[in-house]
Design goal:
- The chain has about 325 residues and is α/β, with parallel strands linked by helices.
- It folds into three domains: about 45 residues, no CATH class; about 120 residues, Rossmann fold (3-Layer(aba) Sandwich), CATH 3.40.50; about 130 residues, Response regulator (Rossmann fold), CATH 3.40.50.2300.
- Helix content is about 45%, strand content about 15%.
- It has 13 helices and eleven strands.
- The strands form two sheets. It has a six-stranded parallel beta sheet, sandwiched between helices. The protein has a five-stranded parallel beta sheet with strand order 7-6-8-9-10, with helices on both faces.
- Helix 1 packs across helix 3, helix 5 crosses helix 13 and helix 8 runs parallel beside helix 9.
- It is elongated and about 85 Å long.
- Pfam families: LacI, Peripla_BP_1.
- This is LacI family transcriptional regulator.
Length: about 325
């Protein structure tokens, strides 16, 4: 439908009022003659008008609002998930309300309370953190889908990747490339996703003859993955053995690691190769030196919608694991 086609366009073509077109579009035809209905429908077809399901839902005051809570919209991955989910929900006739919790439990609970007061139809929790409000809602059986991080307490359908398998894939790559001193950089305040990536990485290295004690490990504090990477890199580069390959459990951690490497006069990837698990499309513009396990965040929206539909229809809810690409 052309962007400038609206009810006004249809009304002008049919020679009737906008309110008449609106009633007929919404199935209220008792007050219109057969000839008027025919003219309006012919005009709709002629101009290519298609009703907006979101607008229709709002006019009917249906509970078509879904709340999404995101831990950090500065993170391109989370912004992509939010955009993808909004598009999927909008196409199905829902309105999405977006809140940034900044990875804080108190803000998360404030937003959960506010969204609950708005009678939202469901909650999409992107990288949620443990909190009392979340635990209470989960215990009540609120329709809730967890994205990238699994439910902090209780159970709930999960949309994401097999993080342990992704970490193991990086370990296999390092071994197959003959890397002698692998390392891993991760946040001190981790999540289910970052912990599983590290565990999968270390477990596979151990399976292939590299016990965890031989792997250089560096963690960084704080919520900013840029700062986490910078601090983790200082610990890694200060270790006795110099790493020749580092797993960074997110793109932004890799950016922080490289910054510290350059300050130490190291060449990336010449002296030390960096591999992240994220794969933002921005990397080809700002980080061509970075190899990534690419996660299809753009496809998350449809999977989130499918999970919500399963909850709403009473179907068995299940985890939805998307394929990643290395």
């Amino acid at each position: 439908m052309p962007e400038d086609v609206s009810l006004t366009t249809v009304a002008a073509r049919a020679g009737v009022s906008i309110s008449t077109v609106s009633r007929i579009v919404n199935g209220e035809t008792r007050r219109a003659s057969a000839a008027t209905i025919a003219r309006v429908r012919d005009a709709i077809e002629a101009v290519g008008y298609r009703p907006n399901p979101v607008g229709r839902a709002l006019r009917r005051r249906q509970s078509q609002v879904v709340g999404m809570l995101v831990a950090n919209l500065d993170n391109p991955a989370m912004a992509t998930i939010a955009s993808s989910t909004e598009a999927a929900l909008r196409s199905a006739g829902y309105v999405m309300m977006l809140c940034d919790t900044h990875d804080r439990a108190d803000l998360q609970d404030d937003y959960l309370s506010a969204l609950r007061a708005q009678l939202v139809r469901g909650f999409v929790m992107v990288a949620s953190v443990p909190s009392k409000g979340l635990a209470d809602l989960s215990a009540e059986g609120a329709p809730m889908v967890f994205v990238t991080r699994r439910a902090p307490a209780g159970r709930g359908p999960f949309v994401g990747i097999d993080d342990r398998a992704a970490g193991a894939a990086v370990a296999d790559r390092f071994i197959d490339e003959g890397r002698r001193a692998p390392a891993v950089a991760f946040p001190q305040q981790g999540s289910s996703a970052t912990r599983d990536r590290v565990l999968g990485f270390l477990a596979r290295l151990a399976e292939r003859g590299r016990p965890a004690a031989s792997v250089i490990q560096g963690e960084g504090s704080g919520l900013s993955h840029l700062q986490v990477g910078y601090e983790a890199a200082e610990k890694i580069f200060s270790a006795g053995d110099k790493p020749d390959a580092i797993l960074c459990v997110s793109d932004q951690i890799a950016y922080g690691v490289r910054r510290r490497a350059l300050e130490r006069g190291l060449d990336v990837p010449g002296d030390c190769s960096l591999v992240s698990i994220d794969g933002s499309p921005l990397n080809k513009w700002v980080a061509p030196w970075l190899v990534s396990v690419e996660i299809p965040y753009i496809a998350y929206g449809q999977e989130v919608l499918a999970s919500l539909n399963a909850i709403w229809t009473g179907s068995a809810s299940m985890d939805r694991l998307l394929p990643y690409r290395f």
